[in-house]
Design goal:
Strand 12, helix 8 and strand 13 form a beta-alpha-beta unit. Helices cover 33% and strands 21% of the residues. The protein is globular. It has 13 helices and 21 strands. Iron/sulfur cluster (SF4) binds next to helix 6. The site of iron/sulfur cluster (SF4) has 10 residues, from helix 6.
């Protein structure tokens, strides 16, 4: 803990149920961590609010993967200073990856911050918020605010993300199965922010999934930074089956769960048993997110990715042979240090050849204390921008092709609720992870049925609920 200079706070009475607003940046892991924090605060009598102007506590759950994500969170915290002027008792905190990476220094760049909690301490957030609000209540601080900073490692913290409050009608949920990553890709800050790989026991994860099924969840997404290498340090193989595939089998065996997904895997973790699982586990949804990062063997080597472009190409073919129609999405970095025109051309060619269902294309962003950040031959921003746009044109052409191919077909969807863009309509997710929007009524939410696709835009399918009970292939 350390001290900063702030005005006197003397008179303050807490509302009976203090309200908390959590803003989440970044990936699904962060969303899941925020759900856990919300659940724990709810158990203590806090109420969640979407309205930050109404909040007694505002927490930013941050992402460090790119500089832009960090700058967004820091900018947001800067703007929250004004709310503090209107509501002096307001507790402001940073959680998650940037909190872990920057720690105590955040209380200098954002001196109005009360709380900085790292990725292994989410389960302590409720205690810290209680403490900070109690200090305000008791006016114990006469001439200074003392921020709480906790970014220590904690053994067993991977098992702390296990509870969640479900919204009315919620039918899909994330389940955190592991934390951390031992891979040390040259561009990635995750091993610093999330620590070493640590998996939860299979029976504990299955118990969580069973509990979710009993509460109406029909689709689970298993989450980990390197999810398909789950358990490799803690659990034995069984008859040549990896711990991750053992887990998939167990989760697919839970009554009430109809679809199982996982993210984010690493290409090197797709051994024969995992590829075969797509052929024999019908609940495993037909979608794999398979980060390519680069199509150039030279760059893949410098990135320390552990595979070649040819190995990636073969993996895509084997997955498509095992489960025809499977959707494959990816992540690609353009402008990695030293990436030449020829390297970029190789990435472009492989992207086109693979014909991904979708891709996240990122401009390389140096991350502190990663090997790539200090490499020579950093690529100028203008070239990154050009490659980014050029590659997106390739990606979007394939996205349109995949979506357009569904027009006139019936696809199975899990209805998740009102459409984000038009609340009068419903929205569902296909087994291949595409969004379909259609007319319906609230009794359809949480149900699985077919939708006949009538048109497709750049990112969304539109259709009509079908009376058919089956559907052709995996759509
Ligand atoms: S495998 Fe993924 S999380 Fe791990 S270091 Fe590489 S990019 Fe980062």
């Amino acid at each position: 803990m350390r001290a900063g200079n702030f005005p006197v706070i003397r008179y303050f009475a807490l509302p009976p149920m203090p309200s908390v607003h959590i803003k989440t940046y970044g990936c699904q892991m962060n969303e899941r961590d925020s759900e856990q924090v919300a659940q724990m605060l709810g158990e203590r009598g806090y109420r969640m609010t979407q309205d930050e102007a109404d909040a007694d506590v505002i927490l930013l759950n941050t992402c460090s993967v790119r500089d832009m994500a960090e700058q967004k969170a820091i900018g947001k915290m800067g703007m929250l200073r004004k709310l503090r002027q209107a509501r002096p008792h307001l507790v402001l905190g940073y959680l998650g990856c940037m909190a872990q990476a920057r720690g105590d220094s955040l209380t200098k760049t954002s001196p109005h911050v009360d709380l900085v909690v790292g990725t292994q301490k989410f389960h302590r957030v409720a205690d810290y918020v209680d403490d900070l609000l109690r200090r305000r209540l008791e006016a114990r601080i006469d001439d200074q605010r003392i921020p709480i900073v906790d970014v220590d490692e904690e053994e067993g913290s991977e098992a702390a993300i296990r509870d969640q409050e479900l919204a009315a009608g919620q039918c899909a949920a994330f389940v955190s199965i592991m934390q951390g990553c031992n891979m040390h890709c040259a561009f990635c800050i995750v091993p610093q922010t999330r620590g070493a790989e640590r998996g939860r026991p299979i029976d504990e994860i299955v118990g969580e999934v069973r509990g979710l099924a009993e509460r109406g969840i029909r689709e689970v997404t298993l989450l980990g930074q390197i999810v398909n290498l789950y358990g490799r340090h803690e659990l034995p193989q069984k008859d040549g089956v990896s711990p991750f595939v053992q887990l998939l089998e167990a989760v697919c065996g839970v009554d009430g769960i109809d679809r199982v997904r996982f993210t984010s895997p690493h290409p090197i973790g797709f051994k024969a048993d995992l590829i075969a699982a797509f052929g024999r586990l019908p609940k495993l949804a037909e979608h794999v997110h398979l980060p390519l990062q680069s199509g150039s063997d030279r760059i893949l080597k410098i990135m320390r990715r552990g595979y070649t472009s040819d190995a990636f190409r073969k993996l895509v073919a084997r997955l498509r042979a095992e489960r025809p129609g499977i959707a494959i999405t990816t992540d690609i970095i353009v402008g990695f240090p030293g990436e030449t025109d020829a390297d970029y051309a190789a990435t472009r060619a492989l992207t086109d050849e693979a014909g991904f269902d979708n891709a996240f294309v990122f401009r390389y962003s140096p991350r502190q204390n990663t090997p790539a950040a200090t490499m020579d031959e950093q690529v100028p921003e203008k070239i990154k921008e050009w490659r980014n746009k050029d590659l997106l044109d390739v990606v979007n052409r394939h996205v349109a092709r995949h979506l357009g191919a569904l027009v006139g077909h019936h696809v199975e969807i899990l209805c998740e609720g009102a459409s984000r863009t038009n609340p009068q309509r419903l929205s569902g997710r296909t087994r291949t992870n595409k969004i379909a929007v259609f007319e319906g009524d609230p009794r359809h939410i949480g149900r699985i049925f077919d939708v006949r696709i009538e048109r497709a835009t750049a990112s969304t399918l539109y259709g009509t609920k079908s009376q058919l009970t089956g559907h052709a292939g995996c759509r």
